């Protein structure tokens, strides 16, 4: 049963991250995902210091606020400060992340958050942290409900805003011309990324969440040219990564989140080499066949 | 030569636009007639793209205002369509030709609503008009530059708007396609639609447009083609560059010809 809960949480997390990551990579904003996942840290710590408990809702709010603030800061430095996007991302998130680390170490005594857990997460603890009602009934692991709710929110967001997200991602100028607010959808998307990041952070940690945000959609992008397929394929890759990642970790007795990220990276490498679209081995083979045919015909 | 019209499609009043405090458009004041095919002409960096973007209020003005059909742009947005410069989007995006053309229908659909069968029919019809119906399921990454341009045009047509702003729709299309597109624009103008086109070729401009705007940061001229595409104004616009002088020479030559034809 433990395995089931862990894999379920892992799947929820990787589907949420992967779906949003699809938009990020098509908007050439992969690094923004990276930035948000790091910058939410002080939000979590501050929320914890204020409320004094590891209550997930408080943390979600704290992190969500910081996530959107991060995107504002990046936009602000880029537009007003005239700084390149990558530079403004680099400045913003390292600074906020460092602030979070300082807060954790300074309040280490009072804070029941440890650095390792924040950075690497511990999905193996999912089955231990149960949600128990006031009548004493055990409903199930808390993480499953949190990551599950976040997944539902994100899927609803994508279904409701499918057209708008699609258009503002592909052609923001045309979207603005027909009165679809690119800024609004940008910040909604960033809010959703913050939400997914925080929900994932307890289980996979702040660093590995980036792997789930970018690797599965990047893999799917290499394998299909249809946007909807890309989303669906990303979701299936997320599930596959959770299942194989879990069993890999069990067999080598290692970190589950680490194993999941490794699988995600391996899948990307495979797609990179063998994708029918632009895989380098397939392209090389095709070129060889063409050359051979050409030389035979002469 | 700046001619104003009554009941204009677009009215630009004392418009100044700056990027980072550097003025790009300076005190533009013009009116464009309804139902005309209007060419905006000027050298690279003259502010042509900036002008049509500020007409659609896509970038902030430093001063002045724009009115479209005597209304605030936000009240008539769905009636305004835009064909951006082709290079402004990533053509490796995972989308099909049909997906892109359907975007033209989004202005008419609210949140939640998916394009319906009727929308698909309009989109297909517009693809036919630009001769691309055979490519409707093709991924856009597999189109040539000219085909991409036609897809953008079909998307604008699918919006069924009243006024169209097109940023270099003829860039990179072959002569036959250019003729087909201009035929299409004429058809639209006959139906009373206003078409504003950024264009680079002065010779064909003479034949394509019935109204010309000459721009080089400042407004040099705005008026009927025959009165604006004249060597003195063109020189003022381009600042007497070598290549231009050659073009002007050609133009005069051509005028002589057309003049002779008429006689
Ligand atoms: N986003 C921007 N930020 C800063 N300057 C800009 C921006 N966009 C355009 N400019 C500047 O404004 C001026 C006008 O640009 P614009 O794109 O309107 O010219 P254009 O007439 O369309 O030129 P082209 O024929 O090359 O398309 C140029 O000097 C350009 O460098
Ligand atoms: Mg331009």
UniProtKB/TrEMBL annotation, chain A:
TM stretches of this protein: 6-25, 32-51, 57-77, 89-109, 143-162, 169-188, 194-215, 227-249, 255-274
One Pfam family, short name: ABC-3
Membrane topology: Multi-pass membrane protein
Domain of life: Bacteria
First-listed, main subcellular location of the protein, grouped into a coarse class: membrane
PANTHER family: ABC-TRANSPORTER METAL-BINDING PROTEIN, METAL TRANSPORT SYSTEM MEMBRANE PROTEIN CT_070-RELATED
Family as reported in the entry's similarity comment: Belongs to the ABC-3 integral membrane protein family.
Subcellular location: Cell membrane
The protein's name: Metal ABC transporter permease
Record flagged with keyword Cell membrane: yes
Keywords of this entry: Cell membrane, Membrane, Transmembrane, Transmembrane helix, Transport
Keyword Transmembrane among record annotations: yes
Automatic annotation (TrEMBL), chain B:
InterPro entries, A to Z: AAA+_ATPase, ABC_transporter-like_ATP-bd, ABC_transporter-like_CS, Metal_Ion_Import_ABC, P-loop_NTPase
One Gene Ontology term of the molecular function aspect: ATP binding
Domain ABC transporter as annotated: residue spans: 10-242
Keywords for this protein: ATP-binding, Nucleotide-binding, Transport
Alphabetized Gene3D superfamilies for the sequence: P-loop containing nucleotide triphosphate hydrolases
SMART domains: AAA (SM00382)
Annotated family: Belongs to the ABC transporter superfamily.
PANTHER family: IRON TRANSPORT SYSTEM ATP-BINDING PROTEIN HI_0361-RELATED, METAL TRANSPORT SYSTEM ATP-BINDING PROTEIN TM_0124-RELATED
Protein name: Metal ABC transporter ATP-binding protein
Top-level taxonomy: Bacteria, Pseudomonadati, Bacteroidota, Cytophagia, Cytophagales
């Amino acid at each position: 049963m433990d395995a089931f809960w862990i894999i379920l949480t892992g799947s929820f997390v990787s589907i949420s991250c992967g779906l949003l990551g699809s938009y990020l990579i098509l908007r050439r904003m992969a690094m923004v995902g990276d930035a948000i996942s790091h910058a939410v840290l002080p939000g979590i710590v501050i929320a914890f210091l204020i409320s004094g408990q590891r209550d997930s809702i408080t943390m979600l709010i704290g992190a969500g606020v910081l996530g959107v603030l991060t995107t504002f800061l990046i936009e602000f430095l880029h537009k007003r400060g005239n700084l390149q996007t990558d530079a403004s991302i680099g400045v913003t998130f390292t600074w906020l992340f460092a602030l979070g680390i300082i807060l954790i170490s300074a309040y280490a005594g009072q804070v029941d958050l440890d650095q390792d857990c924040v950075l690497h997460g511990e999905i193996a603890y999912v089955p231990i942290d149960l949600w128990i009602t006031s009548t004493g009934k055990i409903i199930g692991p808390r993480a499953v409900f949190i990551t599950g709710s976040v997944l539902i929110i994100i899927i609803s967001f994508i279904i409701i805003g499918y057209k708008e997200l699609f258009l503002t991602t592909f052609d923001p100028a045309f979207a603005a011309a027909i009165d679809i607010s690119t800024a609004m959808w940008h910040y909604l998307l960033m809010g959703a990324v913050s939400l997914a990041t925080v929900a994932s952070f307890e289980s996979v940690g702040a660093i590995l969440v980036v792997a789930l945000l970018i690797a599965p959609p990047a893999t799917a992008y290499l394998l299909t040219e249809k946007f909807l397929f890309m989303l669906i394929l990303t979701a299936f890759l997320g599930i596959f990564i959770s299942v194989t990642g879990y069993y890999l970790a069990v067999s080598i007795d290692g970190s589950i989140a680490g194993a999941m990220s490794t699988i995600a990276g391996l899948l990307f490498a495979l797609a990179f080499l063998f994708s029918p679209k632009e895989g380098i081995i397939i392209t090389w083979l095709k070129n060889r066949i063409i050359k051979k045919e050409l030389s035979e015909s002469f | 030569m700046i001619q104003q019209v009554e009941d204009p499609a677009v009215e630009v009043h004392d418009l100044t636009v700056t990027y980072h405090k550097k003025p790009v458009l300076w005190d533009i004041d013009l009116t464009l007639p309804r139902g005309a095919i209007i060419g905006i002409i000027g050298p690279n960096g003259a502010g042509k793209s900036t002008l049509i973007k500020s007409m659609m209020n896509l970038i902030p003005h430093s001063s002045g205002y724009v009115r479209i059909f005597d209304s605030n742009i936000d009240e008539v947005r769905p009636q305004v369509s835009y064909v951006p410069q082709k290079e402004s989007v990533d053509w490796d995006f995972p989308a099909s030709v049909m997906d892109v053309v359907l975007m033209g229908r989004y202005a008419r659909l609210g949140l939640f609503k998916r394009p319906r069968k009727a929308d698909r029919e309009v989109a297909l019809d517009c693809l036919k008009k630009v001769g691309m119906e055979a490519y409707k399921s093709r991924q856009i990454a597999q189109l040539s530059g000219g085909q991409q341009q036609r897809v953008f045009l079909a998307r604008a047509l699918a919006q069924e708007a009243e006024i169209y702003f097109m940023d270099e729709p003829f860039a990179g299309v072959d002569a036959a396609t250019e003729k087909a597109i201009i035929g299409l624009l004429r058809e639209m103008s006959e139906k009373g639609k206003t078409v504003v086109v950024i264009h680079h070729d002065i010779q064909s401009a003479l034949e394509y447009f019935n109204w010309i705007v000459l721009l080089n940061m400042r407004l040099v001229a705005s008026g009927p083609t025959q009165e604006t595409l004249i060597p003195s104004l063109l020189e003022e616009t381009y600042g007497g560059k070598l290549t231009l002088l050659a073009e002007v020479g050609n133009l005069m030559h051509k005028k002589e010809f057309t003049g002779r034809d008429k006689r």
